[in-house]
Structures are given as C-alpha cells and as structure tokens.
Design goal:
It comes from Halalkalibacter oceani. This is Replication initiation and membrane attachment family protein. The chain is mostly helical. It has three domains: about 5-110, Orthogonal Bundle (Arc Repressor Mutant, subunit A), CATH 1.10.10; about 210-285, no CATH class; about 305-475, no CATH class. Helix content is about 55%, strand content about 5%. It contains 24 helices and four strands. A hairpin with a 2-residue loop joins β3 and β4 (about 100-110).
C-alpha cells in the first residue's frame, strides 16, 4: 500500500513545463473526451498546472505544493491520486530531482490526442463507450466528424513548392553552410524545438500477457521474427488487454492475419481481433467486468493454494467480477444495471477486480442476494479511502465489518426495553451474517468469548463460510458440465 506522504509533501517544490499551448480544439477534447474518464478533479488539476504558464512561456516559475492545494481546494492525497490519473492516461509526465534543499518535481504537460486518434484508440474509445453508453458515445463522436469532400466534383489547383519558389544556386548553398549561417542553422543538442506529438498513446506496463508464450506458439514459416515490429508488439499487448485474449488465442489470430495479408500493420490486426471478438462474444463491446486481478497485486500469483483460505483468495484473484455474478445467479445473464455497478467500481472508485469480487460477495450475502447501488458506493468509497489493493486486505476488512455489525446486533438484542422506548434500531438485522452458517447456540457461545479470542476466530469463521460458497461453485460447474 502506497502512502502519499512518502511520495509527496506540501513543501516540495515543482515547476510546470510544456512543449506547446492548447488550442480551443484541445480544450474541447479534454473536456468532452478525457474528463468522463479521468473525472472533474483530474481535469481541474491539468488546467491549473497549465495556468501556471504565463503567455508565450513554456516553463513556469517554482512553486510549492501547498500553493497547489490552496488553488484546487483539495488535500495533498487527492492531488497525488488525481496526478496519477493524468500520468496513466498520457496527459502528464512527472520527473523528480533531490538536492540539499529537498525534492523538486517537474510536471511536463502532454497534449491530448486529436479526436481522430482518440476514437481510433482501442483502449480509450472502449473505456469511453462503457462510460457514456451507446447513444451519447455516438452523439459525441458525430460532433468531431466532418463530411468528406466529393473529390470527383472538384479539380485541385494547389500549387507545389517548386512551382512558386526558385531553388538556391549551388554556390549559395556552399557559402552559406561555411559561413555563420551554418552555425545559426545548427540546433543546440541541449535544446528542443516546440512541437506537437502526433503519435501519442497510452502506455502499458502490464505483465498479464505472456508474450514469451505467444512467441513460442507462432509458426516461423507464417510469421517471421522480423514481422513482429515494435508497432505490432505494442498493438498485440493493447488488444489483448482490451479484448481479454489469451496468448494462444492471440497467436492464432496473428497467424490468420498473416496468412491473408502479405504485410500486417496494427490497423489490420485490430480489425481481425474485432472480427474474432464478434464471433466469440457477439456484438457487445468488451466489458470492464471481464478483467481479473492484476498479477502484481496477487498473493497467489506464483504458488498453488495449500489451505482453504488460500483457495478462496485464488478464486477471487482469478475470477472476473461479471463471472462471479453469473455464478451467484446460477449461470443466468447478469443484469445491465449490475454490469454498470461493476464498471462504476472500477472507473469511479478505482477498485481492483479481486477486491470488487469480495465486496460483491459481502453485499450479496448480507442483503439477501440483492445489489443496492447506494450501499455498494458507500462501502466502495470506504475501501478506496483505505487503499485496499489485495484480496486478503478486502476479506479482512469485510470480516471486521461483519463482526462489528454482529456485535451491534447482539448489543441491541440484549436491551429490548431500551429499544422499545424509542425508535427501533435501524441497523438491527440490517446486515445479516456474511457467508457465516453458525447456529444460534454458537452465536450465544461466541458472545461470551473475550473480544481478543473473537478476533482470533474470525478467519476460521470466514473459512467455513467460504468453503460452503466454493462448494456451491463446484456444484454449479458440475451442473454446466452435465448439460
């Protein structure tokens, strides 16, 4: 778990730099296309950093982060988290320098993609589609479209450069290069001209796709090593992430693409992947709920589960949230409203898939298999503030909350007269036992056990309930196999 105060302090200095100024089109793109993905606070942080650059200046003076806190009206923790969003989506690069006076940060603002780049980007376009829905997504895309000119109706009259300008004589070129002009034309290696990055993209550092396995499964007679350029490799990793494709499946798709095409670029590969997805999954866009827990945050990533608790953790880490809801519904299709809840947990609350699985199970078992969005948002906000990233942390927090609720229910049940005088306790039986199957006499026995002993027994209670849950999972899988 990363604490912001280990990375950033209010007294830390920073400067802002950019290679270009935003045009009106860029501001429109940031507001309409990027803001739905990064949120209003991250958008405000970007514009605030940009405002530190005075007119015709590309490097700001030095400030401290406390001034940024005052300008935004947000805590340093919020600024740190929103800064990470800008970095992840390609709008900001952050550099750090340490000296005797402390830390100094350089925030280099990056240009937003053009609308064409954004809507053709396999990652951001899908995220925006899931965020806005089909209707508004299409309306927004139409806003950035132009009608093609019917070229057959017009004759181009544009003059070429050599039709207007005369070339320099050879003697002039030689004399200029030997004179002071040659030195003026030379660009200092320590400086860079202001430019617009036309090939900006979202970077990936994910280890979820096994590229080594992918390469070993390729036939060299169909796909030579020289064909796997950096452009193709980047496209493969990005497409595998968005469309949830395993290495062996991706190998088959790439080979089919090379069989039908002599030379393959990322655009052709993208179309082939989309065709494969439509055949395999139908016409629905890839759902965010099909993601599984990131490998770097898995406890059971590099070992086999040995205990019941480890098997539970492994189940949550390797099961997509949508699949979990299908299991809990005995294979029935997940309702659209529930899909939106999962996407909100990922996009709004930034929870990881395994943590979402624990949260969903916690609420389903405590609310008679119903998903209340209000309750989901309340618990998700709490877990997000607690920076829960692993399944084990989520399980411990859920069990703690359930134990606290049970103790509250027992206390309210011990004093019926007091509760009868006033209003009924609104929390009584509000949260029934989560995945617990203890009998009433076991509850009474536990009520007499000291609190320290209860804490020691919590994992055992959780193991027992999860064991029943996994048994249901096995039965549902066996039922599907028989059918």
């Amino acid at each position: 778990m990363t604490w912001h105060w280990k990375e950033l302090l209010p007294v830390d200095r920073f400067t802002v730099r950019t290679r270009y100024y935003l045009a009106e089109q860029d501001r429109l793109t940031l507001t309409l296309l990027y803001q739905p993905l990064i949120g209003a606070c991250a958008h405000s942080l970007y514009m605030t950093l940009l405002s530190q650059l005075e007119r015709d200046q590309y490097w700001s003076g030095e400030l401290i982060h406390r001034q940024l806190m005052l300008l935004l009206g947000e805590s340093l923790e919020v600024i740190y988290e929103e800064r990470k969003k800008l970095e992840a989506i390609g709008l900001l690069k952050t550099f750090k320098r340490k000296d005797e006076e402390g830390s100094t940060y350089l925030y280099e603002l990056q240009p937003p993609m053009t609308p064409k780049q954004f809507f053709e980007n396999d990652v951001l376009s899908v995220y925006l589609f899931n965020r806005l829905g089909k209707t508004y997504y299409r309306q927004l895309r139409e806003r950035f479209m132009l009608d093609e000119v019917a070229s057959d109706d017009y004759t181009e009259l544009t003059y070429a450069f050599d039709e207007v300008y005369a070339s320099l004589h050879h003697s002039e070129m030689v004399s200029n290069l030997k004179s002071e002009t040659g030195k003026v034309l030379h660009i200092d290696e320590r400086k860079a001209l202001i430019s617009r990055q036309d090939e900006q993209d979202v970077t990936f550092v994910s280890n979820q796709f096994d590229f080594e396995l992918f390469e070993k499964s390729l036939s060299k007679s169909i796909v030579p090593d020289s064909a796997l350029t950096e452009e193709i490799k980047s496209a493969i990793i990005r497409l595998a992430f968005v469309y949830k494709i395993e290495p062996l499946e991706m190998s088959s798709i790439v080979q089919q693409t090379f069989i039908h095409e002599e030379e393959v670029n990322s655009e052709q590969l993208r179309k082939k992947v989309q065709e494969w997805y439509k055949i395999e999954q139908g016409t629905e866009p890839p759902a965010l709920g099909l993601r599984t827990h990131p490998v770097k945050d898995r406890i059971m990533a590099d070992r086999e589960p040995a205990t019941e608790e480890e098997r539970i953790i492994h189940f949550y880490e390797t099961t997509p949230p949508l699949t979990l809801l299908e299991i809990r519904s005995d294979g029935a299709k997940v309702a659209a409203a529930d899909v939106k809840i999962i996407e909100s947990l990922m996009l709004d609350h930034k929870l990881l898939p395994g943590v979402i699985n624990v949260l969903l199970d916690f609420i389903l078992w405590s609310q008679d298999m119903k998903l209340s969005k209000a309750l989901v948002d309340k618990i998700a906000s709490h877990w997000a503030r607690k920076k829960v990233r692993t399944v084990k942390e989520a399980m411990e927090l859920a069990l703690f909350e359930q134990n606290k609720s049970n103790q509250s229910s027992r206390r309210s049940g011990s004093y019926p007269k007091a509760s009868a005088k006033g209003k009924a306790n609104p929390r009584r039986d509000k949260l029934p036992k989560w995945l617990l199957a203890e009998k009433q006499k076991e509850q009474d026995a536990k009520a007499e056990v000291p609190s320290s002993a209860k804490r020691n027994e919590l994992p055992a209670s959780g193991d027992k309930s999860f064991e029943e849950m996994l048994e249901e999972l096995k039965k549902s899988k066996a039922g599907k196999g028989e059918s």
